[in-house]
Design a protein that fits this description.
Number of helices: 5
Shape: globular
Number of strands: 7
Mean pLDDT: 85
Oligomer: single chain
Distance between the termini: 23 Å
Low-confidence stretches: none
Length: 122
């Protein structure tokens, strides 16, 4: 289970160190995607939908087409592709959060805005 949060910097090439605890759990290869909960279930479901529907093709392009298979380099870094850095609003600083079965990478300011600066859970 992934838990806790870590602040890391992103270098000029778009590389960021993943926390050692997360690297141990992830294994050698993993998927980096736009933020979608229950990724495996979602992609399996998308594959079953008819590709003749334009809305299904758009969703596949948005989710699967922009995803990438990753592995850490020897220093424990990942290279976050430019299109995913742009999508997430990542600049120099990132907040890496373990959320159970997944890891989320956020621009800290964007996360604060998304949470409405309210730490309470409804």
């Amino acid at each position: 289970m992934f838990m806790n949060e870590y602040r890391h910097t992103i270098d000029a090439k778009g590389r960021m160190i993943l926390p050692a605890r997360f690297r141990e759990e992830l294994g050698t290869r993993f998927v980096l995607s736009r933020g979608i909960d229950h990724w495996q279930t979602l992609t399996t479901s998308l594959q079953k939908l008819s590709f003749t529907k334009s809305s299904v093709r758009k969703l596949r392009r948005f989710l699967i087409g922009s995803s990438t298979e990753m592995e850490c380099d020897r220093q424990g870094r990942i290279l976050i592709p430019a299109h995913l850095r742009e999508y997430a609003g990542l600049k120099k600083e990132a907040l890496v959060i373990g959320t159970g079965a997944t890891i989320e990478i956020w621009n800290p300011a964007v996360l604060d805005a998304a949470n409405g600066d309210d730490e309470s859970i409804a």
